[in-house]
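User: Can you help me understand a structure? I only have the sequence.
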Amino acid sequence: MYDAVIIGSGPNGLAAAIELARAGRRICVLEGAETIGGGTRTRELTLPGFLHDTCSAIHPLGVVSPFFQTLDIAALGLEWVFPPAELAHPFDDGTAAILFRSTRSTGETLGADARAWRDLLGPLAGAMDALAAAFLRPVWKARPSLVPVRFAWHGLRSCASLARGRFAGHRARALFAGCAAHSMVPLERAGTAAFALVLAAAGHAGGWPCARGGSGAIARALAEQLKRLGGSIETGRLVRSMNDLPPSRAVLFDTSPRQLAAIAGDQLPRRYVRRLSRFRQGPGVFKIDWALEGPIPWKARECGSAATVHVGGTFEEIAASESDPWHGRHPERPFTIVAQQSLFDRTRAPAGKHTGWAYCHVPNGSDADMTERIEAQIERFAPGFRDRILARHTIRAAEYERENPNIAGGDIGGGANDILQVLARPLPRFNPYSTPNERLFLCSSSTPPGAGVHGMCGYWAARAALRRLDRS
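Assistant: Let's start by predicting it. Here is the structure, written out as tokens:
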């Protein structure tokens, strides 16, 4: 009998398995697909030799994650690739705001808002270890400290309120808004400033790297760590009910709340299952991968120094684009997150060629094709981009869930990131990883601290499971 079985081999499932195995427990991970990784997979989606990340691509939270910092990633075969700049945000006039590791260098691209940016982000970046320890944990685990208090003072505000109150010019406002838009929540909503603060401060403190060889290298490194600790992984093991599981003392679900209810609903109180069914998913994504003849020809040459480019124009345009999917509409000029990893990682494409990766936000479950709108947005800031496309691969929000059941309706965020659900996900419980059944735990991004490749949802769920195992 296993001490614990983990359903799903995404970063959180593997992190949970590693933490349990470190405690000397006998662990098995079951993965329904033929390859491990969940949202951290890499495949040849377009042409032979072109490696594309199927979901996650850039990993600012992986660098600052307390869990990842416990790993000897080099010994496990994982290498972070750090571009000269962390993030670029182009404008129609051919210039760009650039997020560098240095807040001073970043300020030089922001004009009159240079000092305001440094004053806001500098203290948070300088205390990133304490900040990461504070925000990458459930609320009930928070420890009194000036860093989280300072962060909460600003973070509980809306992005719109903080950006307009702090910055006078369009450049800083747009750079800040692009970071906040990763929340997939309208920028006028309370709490959206927190996403911008975390991601911008993480860029200044640790960078926005990609993984050499593709994001799949992250999953392989975690699997290697688990193997060294004596744990096992079985692929091609789709779990539809509890009868599909080997005997164990505990089961951890790296799944959506909907999947937890479908698999284990008969072992949970009906009221709890009904509450799980009311868990709110956020908008979905429409994603494109390109095989390219050459690099994306940005008008602002500085965009070639970053692996991540936020394509969206002004604060007002980004805010409109993020409001549309939340209210069931498809944006005409979508805010688009672009990654160009092959500029800095030559393993991604054949010699002289390049890859491109991009997505925009759409209503949850959307079957719309956003190819034309996304490519028009990139062409707007990189004339001649379309001429460099050799092949493309697209995936609609509705298709994402068929490929990865954990991405419900194309929601890569693990659930709507409005402030109440961020603070109490998946349900308001003192221990959000536990369920009314003492054997069952949830360890996915639908638990605190939420989305991102950081492994902390799995880490905290494992700690909760260990407390139960120790008592039994």
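Now, to help you interpret it: The mean pLDDT is 95. The chain has 17 helices and 16 strands. Let me know which part you'd like to focus on.
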